[in-house]
Amino acid sequence: MKQMLMRGFTTVRDVGGATRPLAQAEEAGQIEGPRLVFCGKALSQTGGHSDYRGFVDNRSAESQTYRLGAMGRVCDGVDAVRQAARDEIRQGLGSSRRWLMAACRRRRIPSTSSSSRYQSWRPSSKRRRTLRPMSPRISIPTRRSRVPCGAVCARLNIPTWRLMKERGAIACPTLVAYEALHKDAKALGLPDVSVAKIDDVRLRSRGSLEILQKAGVTMAFGTDLLGEMHKYQSDEFTIRAEVLPPIEVIRSTTCYAAELLRMTGKVGSLRSASSPT
């Protein structure tokens, strides 16, 4: 978090794993870092994006739910998802800016047999607006089902982009994640099949920026980096600048990011010293 602050990020959103005590420690000045908007643990089905048990790991899924620093928790079925969401709210996720991440797809890395074209969660027609959902890179049918909920996601097809524009959804491309994985694949010990998946997305991702811009979809800044790969955080600026006008790249991490967090007027803008706060 201190390194993020030193790179100039004064407010960040974590969509899986950060906890209220971490945000409180920053607010109290016990640690140095940016203001933290957190989503609690991501919700995942068994074998899903946040189920990190290997093929021969038969420990209970609860071992992940209660492990400090775990990105997500496993819950299957409507009742279990509802209970998990309530439990994350109980733990104070996101304070008044409540977010919930639906980790919908089968995990892509390091598994060599998983597929990203897998739909697990479906939004309820009786959904409440207490939480604002966000979705990771998942299959097209799943992504389109989330747009009416106000969910935000990345890899999309043209009809979904149009629907996002119509519904006012915000895209949060995270292209640097694939560049980082490509650079560090050997050090991370990723198998060739995973590297091939990464490169397939990496080489196609820049085209999505151009299409999103033409569709008029608002794009906020994001990275989706984990652990030591956070050192590549600022490289997202360079990648976007290859396709987008510089002013749009700047807006993505200021006013557009504030809109994404529903914090317009509180963060993401520059004012003179004489302006009212």
Question: What is the gist of this entry?
Answer:
The protein is built from eleven helices and six strands.
Per CATH, the class of the largest domain reads: Alpha Beta
Unreliable stretches, pLDDT < 50, 5 or more residues?
104-119, 125-129, 137-146, 148-154
What does the overall shape look like? globular
Strand order of the largest sheet: 4-3-5-6
Q: Give helix % range.
A: 25-40%
CATH topology of the largest domain: TIM Barrel
Assess the beta-strand content as a share of residues.
5-15%
Instruction: List how many beta strands DSSP finds.
Output: 6
Summing up helix and strand content along with how strands pair, one would put the structural category as alpha/beta
Tell me the series of helices and strands, N- to C-terminal: HEHEEHEHEEHHHHHHH
What is the H level of CATH, i.e. the homologous superfamily of the largest domain?
Metal-dependent hydrolases
The number of domains: 2
Q: What would the average pLDDT be, to the nearest integer?
A: 79
Protein name: Amidohydrolase family protein
Organism: Mesorhizobium album
Biased composition (Low complexity): 110-123
Region (Disordered): 110-132
3D architecture notes:
Helix 2 (20-27) links the parallel strand 1 (11-14) and strand 2. With 277 residues, the protein is α/β, with parallel strands linked by helices. Mean pLDDT is 79; it is low at 104-119, 125-129, 137-146 and 148-154. Helices cover 38% and strands 8% of the residues. It has a four-stranded parallel β-sheet with strand order 4-3-5-6. Strands 1-2 form a two-stranded parallel ribbon. It folds into two domains: 1-153, TIM Barrel, CATH 3.20.20.140; 154-261, no CATH class. InterPro entries: Metal_Hydrolase, Metallo-dep_Hydrolase. Residues 110-132 are annotated as: Disordered. Residues 110-123 have a biased composition (Low complexity). This is Amidohydrolase family protein.
